[in-house]
Amino acid sequence: MSLNDSKIIELPKIMDHRGNLTFIESDRHIPFDIKRVYYLYDVPGGASRAAHGHRGLSQLMISMSGSFDVTLDDGFEKKKFHLNRSYYGLYIPPMIWRDLDNFSSGAVCMVLASDFYDEGDYFRDYDNFLNEARKGHK
Questions:
Q1: Taking every annotated instance into account, which residue ranges of this chain make up the domain Sugar 3,4-ketoisomerase QdtA cupin (predicted)?
Q2: pTM for this structure?
């Protein structure tokens, strides 16, 4: 996978004077089955989150409230995304390092994941991630 496989996905939005509704369906709006959902909230000002990569996991990140920045890195280049709308999701395929920062007050980041939690799927060390990501590209 490369950074070019990451993208913003516009989710369905049903507008109504009583409030809007957005929904997400596995393998229809996003390219994977949803096996886990989690969310980050009450992130202190100036703090960052994530700082890891995944070997096989795909994710969709959504700003449910407020805003934050996501910097993605495939081992060769980096790209920053600003998430601030609940009907836009950032698709992140496997083998992409991610850093989250610049959380606004009250920001909530919801993450849909393609698999159950597995610590063995994580890259926690950036140098180990780089070595694996750059294999076969020398």
A1: 5-133
A2: 0.92
| Residues of the domain holding 68 | 3-133
Question: Residue 9 is part of a domain; what is its CATH number?
Answer: 2.60.120.10
pLDDT in tens, 74-101: 999 999 999 999 999 999 999 999 999 9
Asked if the structure places residue 37 within a domain, the reply is yes
- Residues 62, 86: contact at Cβ < 8 Å? yes
Assigned domain for 138 exists:
no
Active site includes 52? yes
Domain presence at residue 27? yes
Number of domains in the chain: 1
Q: Is residue 86 part of a domain?
A: yes
* pLDDT tens-digit map of 60-73: 999 999 999 999 99
- Catalytic residue (one of 17, 29, 52, 137): 52
